[in-house]
Every structure is written in structure tokens, then in C-alpha cells.
Design brief:
The protein is an alpha+beta fold. It folds into 3 domains: about 100-190, Pdz3 Domain (Roll), CATH 2.30.42.10; about 195-330 and about 345-415, 2-enoyl-CoA Hydratase, Chain A, domain 1 (Alpha-Beta Complex), CATH 3.90.226.10; about 425-505. The longest helix is centred in the N-terminal third of the chain and has 31 residues, at about 5-35.
């Protein structure tokens, strides 16, 4: 290139250099002056850019993972009450709740005075095979002391759970012995039962308590029905009280067992989810058995799917109190770090077309969370006339009127039993003193209590021991002042609560359920429905 041509291009080269210099200078000026929000605002992923900016420029060191754990729940809370974020450390525990089993040592424990007390040992489980007994106190894990403030439920679960076939060494203090005993437990699969009680209420009526809807609920249901068939049941009560739900598919499978072919069980619709119907296939073995379903304000989600399908198809009589009112369907989405979100993607509708989701205000969950308290204060737990329905009326297959927009309203209302209720009883129950006393009594009397192998004999023995009087002295010593008149008025309630917990500690869930059902007004109403041949709802008469 000659000198003349070089001089001719020099102004252009200088202009380009100036432009590049301005761009570089602007970038560094913005970078170091903190004026980087223009990058965020113009980006398609502002949240990601914001977190990157905080990590890069914030005045102090920030734990971005912790920041995300706080930010994401706030975002989801602005959508609806059931879209939630689950951190990586909580994800496994949440998954275990609905799985058919998890891997661990096989004990049920309570923490008292900073020490793990073994409340129950899973029959034929790893801990029982190793020699652990109910009443043992675990004081060390793998050679390290495990007592004091470090003992929390989360930390205990972390140390006791673990992969199948791994070993854990437990140091145990046993009642009546001064030296620590050591046991090596080989972890194994611990079944998580979703059906906690199956027995005969009378010579004709079977009873099944469904605690949750998990992966194994349907096969557990078939086993329970087979057991009742061997005992000759001709009527059935399914108890869904305080069942907060779980997998929708498990509720559909269960409903299918009781419905004839081509009956709609439930359907779902969402903005990006076209309507999907879930009909019965006609293969159920119990399509004609008289059926009662028990619900209350704690029955939610999958429980409401089942109860709604039975009610709208006029297949069962629903007894109890209005259910919770959760009609939103969540999809579980996992992140690479193990955390996850449950995002609402659709609403579900009962066969009559009602969405039973109760009203909520996006971003403000206070009223939603306090709904049950509001119902209680409004008197709904005590009077059917106090129930407030949201939305229009719908009709079942034979024309009966049902309501949506706030839970399943039962066909037969059973008020909460307040006979004998006093402020003394409420304080004793809510303070945890009854639970503490029941465990202390159990722990101190295991040799004698072990001689009673069934609910009836143990119950009779406890009545003879006047546990209410013993509790009153224990409570007085632990801060709940004795109130003799109130204790006499609440004697039946106190005895029922105290003895039920001792029975639970010594036996199992089924024995506890059988005990509290013995004088349960909802159970009594169910039995009267069968006696009156009213388990199949009747078509309304025209006036």
C-alpha cells in the first residue's frame, strides 16, 4: 500500500477506533459504576441476570443458593396457595411421605429432654431384628454422643435414615439398666402404610382407614378388602377424615373399584392442559356393596376426588363435615440440584362439573390459611346451617343437589362433639401435656402393659388405673393448675385422649383407631345408615 492510499483511509480508521473506544469505555464505566440494570432489563431472563449481578457485584458475599430458596417461594406464593418450592434438603423427606417405603432403621421416636425415645419399633424391621425395644433411649449414633441441643427431628432422621444394607451403631439406655447397650442395625426398607386400619365394626360392616393416597394405596386397598371378605363383610365404611390427599391416580384407582363401567370419576382442565376425563373401566370387584365415606375439614385433594366421585355418581352416602376444598392439580418439576417445585397446571372437577377449590387471593394466603379457623368461629363445625357455599348448585346422576367452590358437603352432617369440653381440656390437649404424660406413663409401666396384647383388654386395664387422676397430678406439677370441676366435666374426653395415646404407644395405629371409633358419632351414624338401607342415595322426590 503506498503512502497516498494510507493517508486516504486514516480518517476512517481513526473513526472506527474512536467508536470501539467509546463502546469499551461505556462497558467498563457501567460495569464498575453499578449501572448494570440496563443489561438485566433488556434480557429475557431478568431473574437469572439479577442473581448473577448480585453474585458478581454485591458489597458483601452472598449465598446465592439461600437467596434462591427465599425468592422462589415468594414468586410461587403470588400464583396460588398450592404452588410450592421444595429445597433439595427437604425433597427426599417429601418424596418418602408418598412412597411405599424408605430405607432406615425402623423405629418411631419422640424427642424428650433432648434425647431420642423409641416410641414404637416396626415389626420384623431392622431395629427389632437387632434387639431395639420400645422405651429405649438412643444416646449415641456411630460412636458419637447424640444428646442435647443437637437432637432435632431433622438431624435424627438424617442420621438414622440411609441407603439399604448400610449399618449404623446405636448406643441405647434401657429402662432399669445403668450401662449403655450397643446395637448394630442394618438399614432396610421400611414400609409406609397409607391404610392404617382394617377391621369389622360389627358382624356385617367392614371399616378401612385411609391415611393418605400414596404409591401403594390401591394394592393396600385390595389387600384390606380381601381381609374383610374373609370375615364376611356386606357393608363398607371408608374413612378419609384428616386425609390430606396425595397422588390423584391412587384416588382414581380406588374409585374405579366401586363404580360400574363408564362412570366419570374426575376430569381436569388447565390453560395448557386440555380436558382429560378419567372414567371407570368396569373391572372393579365391589361395584354393588353398600358404601359410606367419612370426611371432615381435614379431608383434601385426592380424598375429595374419591368422595366427589362417589357422591356425584350416587354410589355412596357421604357422612361428616365439609371437606377442605383443594381442587388444584400440581405437577412436580425437579431442578438439577435436587430441589423441586410443585406447580399448579390444572383444576380438577367432579363428575357433576363442580370445582371444589375454595376461593383464594393470589399473593395473600392469610385468609386461605385461616379458613378452617374461620369456619370454626362461624359455627360450621357445629351446625349444617352455617355452611357457606361458593358458586352455583350442581346435580348428581339422579338429580340430587350438590355444591362446589369450597369442598365436598356431606349428605349427612355430623357436628363436632363438644360435650364435656372445657378450657382445662383444651389447654391440656394443645399444650402437649397429654402426649407427654401418656409417653411417660407408658415408659414407666411397660412390663405390666406388655401383658395386654389387644385393644379391649388394655383399655379395660387403663380404666381401672384412673389415668385421668394421675394425669391431673402430673399436669399440676408441670404448670397446668388443677381444676377439679372442669376435670370432672371433661373426664370422658380426658380419659379417651390419654388412654388412646397409651394404646397407640403399646400396640399400633389400628388398635388406636379401633379404640377412638368405639364411641365416634360418625361411625354410629354410618352403622344406622346401613340398618336403614340408606347407603345408596335416593332420587329426590318432586313436590
Amino acid at each position: 500500500m503506498n503512502m497516498k492510499k494510507s493517508n486516504r483511509f486514516m480518517p476512517l480508521i481513526m473513526a472506527v477506533c474512536v467508536i470501539i473506544g467509546i463502546m469499551i469505555g461505556s462497558f467498563y464505566a457501567n460495569h464498575f459504576s453499578g449501572n448494570r440494570l440496563n443489561i438485566i432489563n433488556s434480557g429475557s431472563n431478568r431473574l437469572s441476570n439479577l442473581l448473577h449481578l448480585i453474585d458478581d457485584q454485591y458489597v458483601d458475599k452472598v449465598n446465592i443458593d439461600s437467596l434462591v430458596d427465599v425468592a422462589i417461594p415468594q414468586i410461587l406464593a403470588d400464583l396460588d396457595p398450592h404452588s410450592v418450592y421444595i429445597s433439595a434438603k427437604d425433597a427426599q423427606a417429601v418424596a418418602d411421605d408418598l412412597k411405599g417405603s424408605f430405607s432406615g432403621v425402623g423405629i418411631e421416636f419422640t424427642i424428650r429432654k433432648d434425647t431420642i425415645h423409641v416410641q414404637n419399633v416396626v415389626k420384623n424391621g431392622p431395629a427389632q431384628r437387632a434387639g431395639i425395644l420400645a422405651g429405649d433411649k438412643i444416646v449415641s449414633v456411630d460412636g458419637k454422643p447424640f444428646v442435647g441441643k443437637i437432637v432435632t427431628n431433622e438431624e435424627a432422621m438424617r442420621r438414622l435414615k440411609g441407603p439399604k444394607d448400610t449399618k449404623v451403631k446405636l448406643g441405647v439406655m434401657r429402662y432399669g439398666q445403668k450401662a449403655v447397650k450397643y446395637f448394630t442395625v442394618t438399614r432396610g426398607d421400611i414400609p409406609q402404610k397409607s391404610i392404617t386400619a382394617t377391621y369389622m365394626l360389627d358382624k356385617n360392616t367392614g371399616y378401612i382407614k385411609v391415611k393418605s393416597f400414596g404409591e401403594t394405596t390401591y394394592p393396600e386397598m385390595l389387600i384390606a378388602l380381601a381381609k374383610l371378605s374373609q370375615e364376611g363383610f356386606t357393608n363398607l365404611v371408608i374413612d378419609l377424615r384428616d386425609n390430606t390427599g396425595g397422588y390423584m391416580n391412587s384416588a382414581i384407582q380406588m374409585a374405579n373399584e366401586f363404580l360400574p363401567k363408564d362412570k366419570l370419576i374426575v376430569y381436569t382442565i388447565g390453560r395448557k392442559s386440555p380436558r382429560q376425563d378419567f372414567p371407570s373401566d368396569g373391572h372393579g370387584s365391589y361395584q354393588k356393596i353398600p358404601l359410606v365415606v367419612l370426611i371432615n375439614e381435614g379431608s383434601a385433594s385426592a380424598s375429595e376426588i374419591f368422595a366427589g366421585a362417589m357422591q356425584d355418581n350416587d354410589r355412596a352416602t357421604i357422612i361428616g363435615r365439609r371437606s377442605f376444598g383443594k381442587g388444584l392439580v400440581q405437577q412436580q418439576l425437579s431442578f438439577p440440584d435436587g430441589s423441586m417445585i410443585r406447580l399448579t397446571i390444572a383444576r380438577y372437577y367432579t363428575p357433576s362439573g363442580r370445582c371444589i377449590q375454595k376461593p383464594f387471593t393470589a399473593g395473600d394466603n392469610k385468609d386461605y390459611e385461616e379458613d378452617l379457623l374461620t369456619r370454626y368461629q362461624h359455627g360450621e363445625f357445629f351446625s349444617q346451617d352455617s355452611i357457606k357455599h361458593h358458586g352455583p348448585a350442581y346435580h348428581t346422576s339422579i338429580g340430587r343437589t350438590v355444591y362446589g367452590g369450597g369442598g365436598i358437603t356431606p349428605d349427612i352432617f355430623v357436628a363436632e362433639d363438644t360435650l364435656g369440653m372445657t378450657s382445662y381440656y383444651k389447654q391440656a390437649a394443645m399444650s402437649g401435656l397429654i402426649l407427654q404424660y401418656a409417653f411417660t406413663y407408658t415408659d414407666n409401666n411397660r412390663p405390666k402393659l406388655n401383658t395386654y396384647k389387644d385393644m379391649m383388654s388394655l383399655s379395660k386395664y387403663l380404666v381401672s388405673q384412673n389415668t385421668v387422676e394421675q394425669f391431673a397430678a402430673y399436669a399440676d406439677h408441670n404448670g397446668l393448675k388443677r381444676r377439679n370441676l372442669m376435670i370432672r366435666k371433661s373426664h370422658k374426653l380426658l380419659e379417651r385422649f390419654i388412654n388412646s395415646r397409651i394404646i397407640y404407644n403399646m400396640l399400633d395405629d389400628e388398635a388406636w383407631t379401633e379404640y377412638i371409633n368405639a364411641d365416634d358419632p360418625a361411625i354410629a351414624k354410618a352403622l344406622s345408615v346401613f340398618r336403614e338401607n340408606a347407603a345408596f342415595p335416593k332420587k329426590p322426590t318432586k313436590k
